[in-house]
Amino acid sequence: MAGRLEGRTLIMSGGSRGIGLAILLAAAREGANVAFLAKTDKPHPKLSGTVGSAVEEIEAAGSGGVVGILGDVRDDHAVSRLVDSAVEAFGGIDICVNNASVLNLSSTEDLPMSRFDLMQQVNVRGTFALTRACLTHLRKSTNGHIVSLSPPLNISNRWLGAHPAYTLSKYGMSLVTLGIAAEPANASLSVNCLWPKTTIATAAVVNILGGEEAAGRSRDPQIMADAAIEIIAAPAAQRTGQTLVDEDVLRENGIADFSKYGGGTHPDLDIFVDA
């Protein structure tokens, strides 16, 4: 049977590992063509996955086509190459997923300006650049979607003061996305943010947030992939301009048992999510 994304094309920043790769694999299983941009071409001891290994996994998972581009979302030429390659290979773009992101939880005084700049360039500028490059093609789609993996705008002192630079960059991703949703020219598109309720067992959790112990209290990336599929498989007219949480999206679609995603009885809540 044809999948829910049969014949549609998804484009993504990042995607060689973690949540991004899980979404690409899920989209491929639903019949989508996928194109992604990632900057890892050689195995890293702390970061599994490369552009090449991701392409192989995606090809094995689905019947659609795959384009993997080696490059950085900060590079406008790489972004253009990704978009042009997807359009040339598949005839258009139906879904844009802004996944690439940099995590640094340092306090203001402890954060070097070079790291501040990196977060703003990847998280905010990268989201704007890829979305902007896709818009003309997305408007031609019969069911155009944009999804940014960024959080609800929780303006509490807890999150504003925890790591101001990272908070700015992730809220910036959300604001860019919500702003594009509000533009009259994009009225036909579904433009939303998606964020996990709990921490997700990725390299970032292992390397930055607490090692394997923290990963054991985190859910599998598949929960974000499943939520993303529910969003982008739905008609674009169903919703736009929303900041969504994975668990809420799945509950809306009749899923109430999240035990299969791991994390134990009480997985850790993610950053920007209050109890």
Automatic annotation (TrEMBL):
The keyword NADP applies. It holds the Pfam family adh_short. Its main location: other. GO terms for molecular function: oxidoreductase activity. Keywords: NADP, Oxidoreductase, Peroxisome. The lineage of its organism: Bacteria, Bacillati, Actinomycetota, Actinomycetes, Mycobacteriales. InterPro entries: HSDL2, NAD(P)-bd_dom_sf, SDR_fam. The keyword NADP applies. It comes from the Bacteria. Belongs to the short-chain dehydrogenases/reductases (SDR) family. It is found in: Peroxisome. This is Short chain dehydrogenase. It comes from Rhodococcus opacus. Gene3D superfamilies: NAD(P)-binding Rossmann-like Domain.
